[in-house]
Amino acid sequence: MRVITIFAVVVVTSIFVLGCSTTTAQQPPDEPTDELIMQIENSSPAGAANAPANLLSTPESRQNVQPLDWDVTRGEVSPEAQLSDELSSTAPGPAGSSPGGAPDPDADKEAESQHEDDWEGLRELESGFVSPAASEINFGTQDVFTQYCENCSAVNLNHPQRAIGKLFTSSGSCSASVVSGQNVIVTAAHCCYNRSAGNWIGGWSFAPAYRDGFAPYGMFDWSSAAILTRWVNVGDRKSDACVIKLRNDSSGRGVTYYTGWLGRSWNYSTTQVHHSAGYPGNIGGGNKLELCISESFNPNSGCGGGSVLNMGCSMTFGASGGPWIRHYRSGNWVNSVVSGYDSASCTGSFGSTFNGPRFTGDNIVKICNAIGC
For the chain, which domains are there? Predict the structure, then answer.
């Protein structure tokens, strides 16, 4: 694996150890910590026998992966976090967005020919359960939300649902969504870098539209990943975001051919109606796409202030990295990801409210630019 550290201005030296290249950078004077990006690249041959996707080739092997505990990999938060959050701006720049895109019209036909068993397995799971209709209601209060299963009713492979999937890692499962036509997914930094152990988690493999062990569009191995170095040094909520670029599948197709992608938004106000989606272990055993609808709000300054979003939701471990989507099923802009839970005073009741980084020019824009969204 190749690890790269990137600054706005860089002085770079390269070190090669045991066939892996490591690039380090010297920080320029007065360079803010937030502007430093850490990046890792997958140097393993595509399609290798020990590739993450090949190790998860059956529904049973995927179902056996346990949800990642969002506290374990976050570790101890630096005391710098509270001071930095109290001084942080609630609106670092003008609001911006990047649009999503649709999958190829022939994607389903091609995917079914490649993954026939998965498609047949999904059809056999149809139960006749009907998900309740989603209604956008402004709640804006901790522990208040509407929760429902998005893909329980049948083989729900519509866009944008198919652009959301389960992310398998070497430390357990998370959630993620495709947010760029360049085959990039976004998830939580705690699904990418373990601050407790001081290393990259690795082993990332993405299953879009996953359900009950079945991966109708296949499994996509990772190519590279990027986080803010602030996540490593501080570990606060506003830095808990990671982008991963995926490799093409064995047919040479990128994930966006099959799924399309969701848009991204940043620097929007803290009060927004969000649909948060993910694969939580506490609901559906981490095997179905669950959603919560609620209005986000920010905690007080000692809990992150305007850099953090809270919203009511019952999802816990396994939902990490799942998208918070503005204007679901229309604009489909990812505006945050599931980060975790702090306390009753900062967040609300555990299992009824969680938090995420408010996407701004200081987090999602920087890591997306670094990896090439």
Answer: 2-27+34-42+67-74+95-371 (2.40.10.10)
